[in-house]
Amino acid sequence: MAQITTRITATVGVAAVALTLTACSPSDTGGGGDDGQVTLETWISQDMETLLPGDAGSYDNISVLDVVYDGLVRYDPETTEPYNYVAESIEPDDENTVWTITIKPDLTFQNGEPVDAEAFARSWNHTADGDNGLYSNYFFSIIEGYDDMQPTTDDDGNITAEGAADELSGLEVVDELTLEVTLGAPFAGFATMLGYTGFFPIAEECLDDVAACATQPIGNGPFQVTDWQQSQELTAEKWADYPLDETPDYDAIRWTEYATGETSGWADFTAGDLDLSFPPTAEVEAARNDPELSGRYVERPGSALTYLGFSGYTDGPWDDIEFRKAISMAIDREGIIASLGSGQATPADSWVVPGGVPGGEAGTCEWCAFDPEAARAALDEAGGWPEGEKLRISLGDDEAEVEYFTAIGNSVEEVLGIPYELDIDPDYFTTRAEQGYDGMFRNNWFPDYPLNENYLSFYASGEPGAGHWGWYSEEFEAKLDEAAAASSLDESVALYQEAEGILAEEFPTIPFRWSFSATYYSERLDNVILNPFSGAPILREIEVSAG
Amino acid sequence: MGRYIARRVLQGVGTLLLVMLLLHLLTTVAIQLNGNPAQAFFGDKVASESQLAAVEQRFDLDDPCFDQVGNPCLGPFVERLGEYARGDFGTNLRGREVSDIVATAAPNTLRLFVVVLLTWLTLGMVLGSVAARRRGSASDHGIRLTSVLIDAFPVFVLLIVYRYVVAVPLHRWAEETFGEDSWPPYWFKPSFDADHPWATVVVPGILLGLAGSAAFIRLVRAGQLESYQGDHVRTARSKGLAERHVVVHHVVRNSSVPVVTAVGLTFAEALGGAVITEGLMNIYGMGGVLWEAVRNDDVGLVLGVVTLLAAVTVVVMIVVDIAYALLDPRIRYE
Q1: In the prediction, which pLDDT does B333 show?
Q2: Mutating which of B29, B41, B50, B294 best tests the A interface, going by the most A Cβ atoms within 10 A?
Q3: Which of A231, A283, A292, A468 to mutate to test the interface with B (most CBs of B within 10 A)?
Q4: For A357-411, how does the pLDDT look when each residue is reduced to its tens digit (9 = 90+)?
Q5: Class of B105-296 in CATH
Q6: Where's the ABC transmembrane type-1 domain (chain B) (predicted)?
Q7: For chain B, what are the domain ranges?
Q8: Is residue A386 exposed (0-12), middle (13-18) or buried (19+ Cβ within 10 Å)?
């Protein structure tokens, strides 16, 4: 009998637990978004570490900050042209060196502090101060006084002295709503840069406790971060007192954080728990063939360029442009992209993304089409490939990229008969910075702001043999300077296009592929537009129907 | 007993220090060979000397020994030990407190393993006991065959199939049937949900427990078989005790020593996380944290997490040893 009693007690216990579990409804446990609120459910990657604008440099925190903060300018979703948003006006002087920024009146942060000239100066000085080691520090090198704020290092790269200045001498708060910026050199595209996260303002309260602000940002945008369980989920709710007009109709956004990025949320998407997602490779085909899903799909070419460079600082056949042309024409870009990664890329035949930024045009690279005949002819002209040698192709440690570059190597070997070896270098960035390669290597560029200049300026190495590819062109650098000093942005863009023309002629690097952005969205969503620049869905444009 | 525990604690502390030193050396060598994590911080951007130096300083990587291959970097290690002694576990590469990371990740992993353990005990004890009791019968063979089959089925296959084939339709069905505002949809959610940690961890835990239960079933079976043949069992039976009493008090209890060991080991292992399960079900747990930390050469995080893990392991082992003594009076440590 005793045993039976125990058993009965146990059963009753289990039942009681079950009842308590079911008695309270799950939404009582917080998380928000269930009390008649319309919540947009989306995703970010799990490794997002900070929401401090000056320290944000990844797809994820940039897309979150885009709704939490407002910048001086925002970009047109179709053309990526900048237009004034927090700024009333942004005017250069005749030389494009001194810029006067006027800010719209009566704007505040979510904590009530004013968004004024001081708020921008405070933010920029903090990020430009090299001693803080923030990600967006390098943006401010174009402003006068930047160098005095950087630490001094000895030959071993150890800091010997901190930066002398704490403020950019080129930054002057004229009055409450006027900021005067003096650049170190003329730059017609300065206003275009100002929509980037690194140039967002920050509140005084934020500077007082930077660590807290990195997880609980005090923004001036339409959404306010209410809860961030770091590495798990982030919730932002609409800020009721938002004074400007670019704000969507729904009430909250919840980003679920995924360990392996976007595709791991696909099961949740198909189960109806996520509004935006993209399938993992194995499911791409099935999703494409699903008539119900294909109507809820947007795609566009991305703006990140993967391209090939050569170690121009070492002696080798690649010093001859004919050899570089041969390699480029031997790569079957279309075929490789179609067979790998489910076609999630676009073949590249220019150095600036076509249609994605002002001045970007397709076809500027005349040797980027697959042409085995011409490739072999060019190789002969270059004097062939040395017998018994292997072409070394180096890249960082990334599985997907290794697949692409194996295919590139095979393509080259098949067409030109040049044997290759892949060199997977976990220390890629350092080796490249120290000019440690010998042969061909992978490069990738994700632009910071939508202007063709941003794809070109890093080729300015300043002297022969310097830079990542040991390439230097006096003519090219003179053209960049001329473009920076042009009297209007349009003129400037045209001159940068000429600079791209010089690059195309000298052919130091070989464009390979553009990134590709695409997303499926749920039945609740409408007006899903991808940012032509970052590829992220523009959250402020999305319409969510309740239910 | 007291002296024994003291000795074990001392041994544990020694082990701990050794493990930490080893890890420190490994991550240090990784940095020296792989180059600087600070460089990776900038990705494709070209960073100047001073920018790199500032970031190194921010990440506590500015000690020159990190640039000299073969240098054991004992300076930063001793410094770190001092910080640990003060209860400061430092931050990861991007300035997030290690203690905060562990406080978030460890409960999720432990939840998962509570479910795993319950699954094990249920399956192992029931099936193992039945198999042992009916040795050689059809059910015994059936159970043994099942355990081999379970072994042959990797957990990630189980989980992928579950997520895409089972969870998605079940979750939708549960939402339509019980409403979005009820528990069943959460049980079948294809991914972990931080707001409903228990509900969304049950099924993955059961599946992981199922996948790992084979060895446990066989362990229970073997342990009990041995007991069934023991003299004490024959004596108990000959005293006329009821079979149920014999089984529960003499067979199960006596064969529990290896089972407790296995549970203890599992618990310690659990803290290390189940990388695959956590990754697939998007559970933010210790497995993923450690995996990423090692990949990114995040010395501070690797050391902080492993130190905590090693400490817990040592404690668990001591607890297991004490449990032996309680289960089996013949085990004496004097």
Answers
A1: 55
A2: B50
A3: A231
A4: 899 999 999 999 999 999 999 999 999 999 989 999 999 888 788 999 999 999 9
A5: mainly alpha
A6: 106-324
A7: 1-86, 105-296
A8: exposed
